[in-house]
Protein 1
Amino acid sequence: GQNIDQPTEMTATEGAIVQINCTYQTSGFNGLFWYQQHAGEAPTFLSYNVLDGLEEKGRFSSFLSRSKGYSYLLLKELQMKDSASYLCAVNDYKLSFGAGTTVTVRA
Amino acid sequence: GAVVSQHPSRVICKSGTSVKIECRSLDFQATTMFWYRQFPKQSLMLMATSNEGSKATYEQGVEKDKFLINHASLTLSTLTVTSAHPEDSSFYICSARGEVSDTQYFGPGTRLTVL
């Protein structure tokens, strides 16, 4: 089966940094996605890691360690609009999603 | 980036009726489309995978006779919820993936409420 864990909630202050961890144990693995989902809306693509290491895209970075079954999404210079749910998803031809981490950014 | 549309965005229907949801990839050819369901405060659950021109592959526990999926072209897939009941009320989201990339692009979702 697929087991994907991420924290349920995180709170941070505007301008700060937050790191969302994701650990996984899955039967197959081709890569790991991070998506952002605002309430009542569909997920939007943030990043895709296939190889070990850090991928940086503006204020968002994502890291993968395949040997440890571990990834994190780093959000820098937090803005109020970053308040959303962040979904970690393992790609094994089809996607298996974690339960999502709700990030609340406070002024 | 790739754009996926979904129609309708919101539907309210009576118990026992059927509802059709359309998913279109607007600027790329989607060789594979996926249908998900999301209940409040829960993550996305994959219902089925469909490849253009072939039968959909349903996940365990999803009734294929209740959730009819058609993927007739490289830009259109439809999900029909037949004989809908209140427990089918949910947020239905499609995604599409092209030939070249692994990335799935999601439609805006359809909020179904069955009375």
Protein 2
Amino acid sequence: QITLKESGPTLVKPTQTLTLTCTFSGFSLSTSGVGVGWIRQPPGKALEWLALIYWDDDKRYSPSLKSRLTITKDTSKNQVVLTMTNMDPVDTATYYCAHSATLLYDPWGQGTLVTVSS
Amino acid sequence: DIQLTQSPSFLSASVGDRVTITCRASQGISSYLAWYQQKPGKAPKLLIYAASTLQSGVPSRFSGSGSGTEFTLTISSLQPEDFATYYCQQLNSYPPFGGGTKVEIK
């Protein structure tokens, strides 16, 4: 059974850097074809894809957010970390990580709400 | 970029109704389309992939069809647990997700 869980701060100040950790079990990020992605959802709004890291350390980023995002993995710890710089109130959202195979996202973590406010 | 446009963005329906949601791609994406269901306060769940293949465990009242630029998600007989928001996702390009369709109780 694959499970994922997001962790990190619930509140960040504008201009700060957000660091979120996705801790997973039930699969290995060293298995060919496997990836972990990050998707966010502002309150009441649609899903927005952020980034994806593959088993071979290939990384993909949302073009509109690429300059602010970094995704890394620690295979030995079964963790994927997403950092987003220069946070703004518009970045307030629930942030999800999800297991990915062939670019499908399944399953997802429960999500973590991050509020950006001074 | 390939844009996905879902319609309607909101629909009101009754239990037992047949419901159809459309997802249109700005360019052809073959059958590289998936559908997700998201209930309030919960993470999205994969329903359908490759436009028409039901994910394991998904009830058979859900079906998907289409290829190229037009796709549909159909719920043959709406059940109380199906009231949710549905998103399409294309696997070809960015941005991957459509804007969502919220299905509410009439």
